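Page 37, continued from 36.
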């Protein structure tokens, strides 16, 4: 199987670029204009003004959600005006509240660790924003962003990778996400849930550049964003505390693997798998969060060696062209953005009588145990450097 990156926009193509105010999206706009594309810039407005400004004057300028959005929009508008580029702001506040903020809080309160960026890409950047662009009457050949990833197409139908031709969609050759040239900045993990149909008109013009090259090209063009610090993800501390202030936290016990009470937690939404700091428990050896049990409202601590899992069960899986191979296969998997891909065996999982999952679950068995597998996080499958699917971690399984 071979894969070819889909053609990038060319002179005369109508291109809408999602702009954040950062160096990546700003350079993308300018590169496309230099290429002769008919470029329009758009920025999505998320901020509802519902987090209080801290008394020391700090603002959330470099996060996805915060009052710094006003400055970002002003900078994007000024840049587009200076370069004779039409510019629009698309209000997606309500969709963001429902699909990202409410989801984020609900998942943490259920003892899971969600990934808001994966959720945002699926439902907001490549969902509500595109719907808003359509409502504005903007026609385009391509929608581009400054992500580091590639959109590719296989030389053969998706089913042939598994030796399958009889299942639904097996004969399709969908657009798929692949690793970018700069593996250190690769964002394919974040983009794993974008439907193949949406990807047909999506392109990432920075796919073949390294971050260093991007900064160099931006400075050569005197792009002010090249001197900014890179954006933080979502919402930094201490504003997460405010996000959860809509409902009182419910304290409970902190226990060890044997059920011994070690202390009290201040609410399970304040803890994540693998966490070590801020536990408020004294011990002769370092302890980490190994499990969060929402039903019993307990946080379970364990030693480093107890954090390793041999397998996981993935649910709510998305597949290229909606083709579920329904068979066992080998792949590389990532369980978080910062983790290296590890080889694993994937196979359909038959739920036990007491188990419930979203969609058809798959058992993912690692070639070597992985640390701090966190339910709620995304797990992405790669074959030949291309995303072959992605799901949500439903359950971590210890050493078998």
């Amino acid at each position: 199987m071979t894969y070819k990156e889909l053609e990038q926009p060319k002179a005369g193509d109508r291109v809408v670029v999602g702009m954040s105010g950062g160096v990546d999206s700003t350079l993308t706009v300018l590169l496309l204009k230099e290429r002769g594309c008919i470029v329009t810039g758009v920025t999505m407005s998320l901020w509802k003004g519902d987090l209080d400004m801290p008394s020391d004057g700090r603002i959330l300028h470099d996060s996805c959600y915060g009052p710094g959005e006003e400055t970002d929009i002003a900078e994007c508008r000024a840049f587009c005006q200076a370069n004779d580029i039409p510019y629009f702001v698309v209000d997606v506040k309500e969709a963001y509240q429902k699909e990202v903020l409410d989801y984020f809080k609900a998942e943490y309160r259920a003892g899971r660790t969600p990934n808001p960026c994966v959720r945002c890409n699926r439902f907001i950047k490549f969902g509500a924003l595109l719907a808003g662009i359509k409502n504005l009457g903007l026609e385009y050949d391509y929608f581009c962003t400054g992500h580091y990833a590639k959109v590719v197409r296989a030389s053969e139908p998706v089913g042939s990778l598994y030796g399958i031709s009889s299942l639904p969609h097996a004969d399709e050759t969908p657009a798929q996400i692949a690793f970018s040239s700069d593996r250190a900045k690769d964002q394919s993990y974040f983009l794993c849930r974008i439907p193949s149909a949406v990807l047909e008109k999506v392109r990432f013009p920075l796919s073949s550049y390294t971050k260093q090259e991007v900064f160099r090209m931006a400075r050569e063009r005197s792009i002010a964003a090249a001197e900014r610090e890179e954006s933080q993800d979502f919402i930094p501390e201490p504003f997460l505390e405010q996000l959860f202030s809509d409902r009182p936290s419910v304290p409970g016990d902190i226990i060890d693997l044997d059920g011994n009470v070690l202390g009290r937690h201040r609410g399970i939404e304040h803890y994540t798998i693998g966490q070590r700091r801020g536990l408020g428990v004294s011990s002769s050896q370092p302890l980490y969060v190994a499990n969060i049990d929402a039903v019993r409202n307990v946080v379970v601590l364990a030693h480093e060696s107890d954090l390793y899992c041999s397998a996981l069960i993935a649910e709510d899986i998305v597949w290229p062209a909606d083709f579920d191979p329904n068979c066992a296969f080998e792949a590389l998997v990532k369980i978080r953005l910062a983790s290296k891909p590890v080889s694993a065996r994937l196979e359909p999982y038959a739920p036990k009588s007491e188990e419930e999952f979203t969609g058809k679950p798959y058992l993912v068995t690692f070639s070597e145990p992985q640390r701090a597998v966190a339910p709620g996080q995304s797990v992405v499958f790669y074959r030949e450097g291309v995303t072959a699917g992605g799901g949500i971690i439903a359950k971590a399984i210890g050493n078998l």
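The mean pLDDT is 93. Flag for discussion at group meeting. The first strand starts at residue 3 and ends at 5.
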